[in-house]
Design a protein that fits this description.
Two copies of one chain form a homodimer. By secondary structure, chain A is of the alpha+beta class. Chain A is built from 18 helices and 27 strands. The first copy, chain A, has a domain of 345 residues: Beta-galactosidase, Chain A, domain 5, CATH 2.70.98.70.
């Protein structure tokens, strides 16, 4: 009966609709035929198909196992229903790719078993107070994901079923599910949130498969049909104009999945919507932004992030395949090659075939400003690169809070060089899905350490975290990205933060500078604080490597190891060394991999230098032990911290040689003018690198600073003001 | 005039001698012609030649720089003379490979410059009291190395010189150098030591090039000509019958260089000596032994060793090329492929051509016993492997001391699995050639920590190191390798140590056991101590990874971190946790890479379990911070420690799943009979793995042990005594 209704829908609206109203629409029969024909010529596609066959055969051997929903996340029924949706999708695909009817029958029997059970289900028994329950899973999110996957498998086999079987699955399972995920749960469906994206994708794709335009409209425009919610509004509001997603790269990766899957389905069925062109192609920008937010295959670990989350995660594989199909950009192929994976879709086939034909070009990792906020006015991540994929990459974290998964790290930064993490971000304190680690959820130390300001390369005032560690406060106040220049020998990112601490405004400029006398570019850091009363300012630098030389006198705690403080993350730091207060610049040199790094740092008032390591007050061994240097200034109101981080030399343990182990910077100096600062580096070659940074980024304002008797004058927010080596006669021997 | 003398020598004794008495002999003209002709077809050879051209062209651009010797190691004149011998050898080779006379002229001018300077030189001004000085370098060793390299370059260009030029170089430089390195310094030359190997190689190769058989005889047989010293005696005495070299893999790699270079020269000039067949082919065994003493390209870091010393070091590249030329073993090619290097020699050409032809086969990393001592009776390194190159590899250190570079680690072990270091050895405390780290020499912590027993997985008694840390004492007393079985489902290494501590004898069996109910093999450890009085026994396990679960109650030092002890390495350990004494087995689970490891351990008397980390009392940040578990037993005389280390499960951070995070071993039990022990592992499957180990390794003796009411009877040193799962009815739920 419902089948009869469906043919009344305006099927002509869908380009891909078939004459047979049971034929596949998410992937067309012609596309499946092409995959079957051409897939075997593309090794990556073949390997993927073989993997899937192994998984699905294993599931088929276990039979149709559809238990009554009972367990929460991680429990048996939860995991079994997850396995089932993977198997339904996989079996559908394999039926089309191999012609083997056993796959279709398996998917059919699985779906019929669900159709028998679903009408009897009420809210999941393991529901939690603050979550909308699903029917199959403890939270509705997983039900949405179940449907996104299963509908793809069903689409693939629907034309193998009898009308009665189709009616059973359509009416007893899919329509009720789609109704539950939309009309019955408006608080989940009508939202601008990535959980709602899974819901609209599930409902919309079900609409395409059932030829039910009303479902598709709900998915695209929200329950009211007015476009305030739904997929189009989500595209418009969840990404910044540069394709950045507020929670940061780790969660952007997660959010990306349903966007590209549903957009792909829309493109197939309603190409006239030009969904991938919407808002300047923001979905494709989001894929690019995510790749740009990585180094050596791993995402920048800003906010709650696992350090080992790589570009080869399934969502990014999907994103790359879909983006390649849209753009044919050969540089995406080099990412796919690194991923060693493709989807078993027409898009995945395109990628696999292009790779087999050797069409890939290196991905152009470049300096880029990824603005945050739907309008691009809530800060940014600023990425400065030099030397390509495994060269130097600096990422400055000037974004808004990132909701509950955000860290209190405004104006922090990380640095990668020569394939290594050099200046680090702890990421999240979590061992995902490891039962022994609190069941795999975020650990207590995620809050007590990983989110806190002192766990980042960011300014901490009076041993407190920014916004006192309250993310809702943080959400209200983004930083300002004042300046970004990502090309040439002077790259710079400059941002300002007002409101992270009461009465304190601070700004920071991070610059990547090249010079003919230095084999590697150096990073210059200028951080200026304007306070309203005397305070303690701590500026940590978390680094990775073995200390080679401590260039200052310090009391060492070699036989007892005190803890730095009592709260805001300080309780997790052991103190290994502390210096007396001094206004003279100091150095610290470490070795990571085969390269040395010398950090040279000074300040406008005397500071103490502390060498610390994470791991204190960690009863369950949840933390990694990682070193940091903290510059501590007491008693100032306004203050300036300035430093330079210099990669140099080579340590070769195989051939047992070392060269360039000494810094090529002889001196670091700083002066403040009335409205600007100059940082000058004297090189061992005699030349001077100087960088001017004004308070005001305006390109037309003039500035004047005198440093050690030398005048520096420039116009604009920043300027490079180098001096050549003095003539031979003028130099001291 | 001397030239005239030389033709009187019995040149017919040399197979490779040319009619032209200036033609090359170390590599023949025909071989050079083949390299010139065929090298361009072998990509690895081409790349190597291109690298060498770059280096030599750079040296040539700098001109002939032969400074008067002045500086000690690392100083300017030292480094310049090192650069020069590389350049002389390289230029000679390139002249032959390219025909470009500029290379020959450069090598000639360099050698003539040395010939002008050498006769005027006395003992090097930077000589040290306890070292024989060179003329060019502060120690004679470097002079030997200079000549080994330079004579190769000279040989290549000798036929381009005028008789007068040859006479100058022969008589003013080479003969005086050879004389200084032999007759004038008998204490260096007549030695069974790898420094003497460099001297005899230098003198012998000079003999071949100058057609001076007397020099060759000295090199082969020592100054007396009786064979007590010299190269042949060194081959016979410096390696064990299995090709092991006493100091361990790191120094074996270093010692190997002159052996294979000089042996190659002998093979070229006197093939009838069958030098590579001598002593059962011990030089080729030494190359194989070295490769077998590695995991994932890095040498086992026993004794003073850098962890990053790999199979791609130059000495091993030379060794692999020479060994391949002798054996044509295709598995050596896979090592060469990993090395990405070949020598620019006929042997290197063979390797490069074979690789270009795709002839390589995987190297068969296998279980192997590498006996120590010239007669193979001074202990051994026992290597147990399962699962090939990146599978599980256990190496047990039952060797003699290894002279001054030896560590106090008898019956210690390391474990690799799944590409990771799992149970570790610290190696040496040294940053080689890093000026900031004490000039790159061994650090004080090498003695105070790295060599000490507690820094290893070895028994420490009364908080002292074996032999009280005196290597000469250790040299006198090797352990006994009692048993080795390297095949099948039960691999075992069993050794005994008497004399490391007064009145204490201990033995240890380490076994790698496979079982159908376990996806990975497990390691069983049984250590038995027989003391003469009550003592404190500490058994450390140094592991690599993040602690997942501490399976016992322990007091945690979370806010102050005490130091474990005052000497013998204990002063370098922070204490993080300590349990009360108990006789119940305990567990510790950690994660490294993508795999979990559970160590389950017990003892015959109550022990405390300490969790510690290296890094205390380290004022200069010289130590890495690495965790260890120490089992501490107080008040016993005789004692047994038993344990099982189980790799399990998978952590996948990309796909965010975990499986097998729980151990599949339910219980660990142990019983002692009158003359043997049984260790039993009850698996979660219900099956029991049991291993019997007798005190006496004799294969014919019978043993009887009762464990929890079950009798275990076997004949021989060890036996596998598994029981199937009890019938369903008999099992408790």
């Amino acid at each position: 009966m419902l089948m009869a209704c469906m043919v009344l829908l305006p099927a002509a609206a869908y380009a891909a609709s078939a004459s047979d109203d049971a034929a596949p629409v998410l992937v067309t029969p012609a596309e499946y035929a092409a995959m079957k024909r051409e897939g075997p010529q593309a090794p990556l596609f073949v390997a993927e198909q073989r993997n899937l066959e192994r998984t699905v055969r294993k599931a088929m051997a276990a039979g149709i196992v559809v238990p009554l929903p009972k367990d929460p996340g991680g429990g048996y029924t939860h995991e079994q229903h997850k396995r089932n949706y993977m198997a339904i999708q996989g079996a559908g695909t394999l039926y089309r790719l191999t012609g083997d009817r056993a796959y279709a029958d398996y998917a059919r029997d699985m779906l019929l078993a669900y159709a028998r059970m679903y009408p009897k289900l009420g809210p999941h028994p393991a529901q939690r107070d603050n979550q909308i329950p699903g029917r199959l899973f403890w939270q509705i999110l997983n039900d949405s994901v179940w449907l996104v996957y299963s509908i793809q498998g069903y689409d693939a086999i629907r034309d193998t079923l009898t009308p009665a079987q189709r009616a059973t699955i359509d009416n007893d399972l899919l329509r009720p599910m789609a109704r539950y995920l939309s009309d019955d749960t408006p608080k989940n469906f009508d939202q601008i949130h990535n959980h709602a994206t899974w819901a609209v994708a599930a409902v919309g794709m079900t609409g395409y498969v059932l030829r039910d335009h009303a479902l598709v409209d709900k998915a695209l425009l929200g329950l009211s049909g007015k476009g305030q919610y739904g997929f189009l509004a989500q595209i418009d509001q969840l990404f910044s104009p540069d394709g950045y997603y507020e929670e940061g790269p780790y969660y952007q990766r997660y959010a990306l999945g349903p966007f590209v899957i549903f957009a792909g389905a829309i493109q197939h069925n309603e190409p006239k919507r030009k969904i991938f062109q919407r808002r300047g192609g923001v979905l494709l920008k989001a894929v690019d932004a995510l790749i740009q937010s990585s180094y050596d295959g791993y995402l920048f670990p800003f906010n709650d992030s696992l350090l080992d989350k790589g570009l080869d995660s399934e969502e990014i594989v999907t994103g790359v395949d879909v983006a390649y199909a849209q753009t044919q950009a050969p540089e995406l192929l080099s990412i796919a090659k690194w991923q060693k994976r493709v989807m078993l879709t027409p898009e995945g086939l395109q990628v696999a075939r292009a790779l087999a034909a050797g069409k890939e070009r290196p991905f152009a990792f470049r300096s880029i400003l990824l603005r945050d906020g739907a309008n691009g006015d809530r800060g940014a991540i600023a990425v400065l690169r030099s030397g390509g994929e495994r060269g130097l990459a600096l990422a400055m974290k000037n974004t808004s809070q990132g909701m509950g998964h955000g860290h209190f790290d405004r104006l922090s930064w990380v640095l990668y060089d020569h394939g290594e993490r050099v200046v680090t971000d702890y990421g999240s304190a979590r061992f995902i899905n490891v039962e022994a680690k609190q069941g795999g959820i975020y650990l207590p130390e995620n809050t007590s350490w990983a989110k806190q300001t002192v766990a980042h390369n960011a300014l901490a005032v009076n041993e407190r975290s920014q916004f006192d560690g309250e993310w809702r406060k943080g959400e209200a106040t983004p930083p300002q990205q004042l300046l970004f220049a990502g090309e040439g020998d002077t790259q710079i990112a400059f941002a300002r933060m007002d409101g992270a601490y009461p009465g304190v405004v601070f700004d920071r400029a991070l610059a990547v500078l090249k010079h003919a006398d230095l084999p590697q570019p150096v990073v210059v850091d200028l951080l200026r604080v304007h306070g309203s009363k005397v305070a303690r300012y701590d500026l940590p630098l978390h680094f990775n490597g073995q200390i080679m030389a401590v260039g200052f006198d310090a009391t060492r705690h070699v036989a007892d190891r005190p803890v730095l403080g009592g709260k805001a993350g300080y309780q997790h730091l052991w103190v290994d060394a502390e210096s007396a207060a001094s206004a003279d610049p100091r150095t610290l040199t470490w070795l990571i991999g085969t390269r040395f790094y010398t950090y040279r740092f000074g300040a406008s008032a005397p500071t103490r230098a502390l060498l610390v390591e994470s791991g204190a007050n960690d009863p369950d061994f949840n933390l990694r032990h990682e070193p940091a240097l903290i510059q501590r200034m007491d008693g100032a109101t306004d203050a300036t911290f300035f430093g330079v981080l210099e990669p140099h030399g080579e340590y070769n343990g195989t051939a047992e040689y070392v060269h360039g182990a000494d810094s090529r910077i002889q001196a670091l100096r700083h002066a403040r003018g009335s409205d600007a600062d100059v940082i000058a580096l004297t090189l061992t070659s005699g030349a001077t690198i100087a960088l001017g940074v004004a308070d005001d980024p305006s390109p037309t304002r003039k500035h004047h600073v005198v440093l050690d008797g030398t005048s520096y004058d420039w116009t604009g927010g920043h300027a490079r003001l180098d001096r050549a080596a003095p003539a031979q006669g003028g130099r001291k021997p």
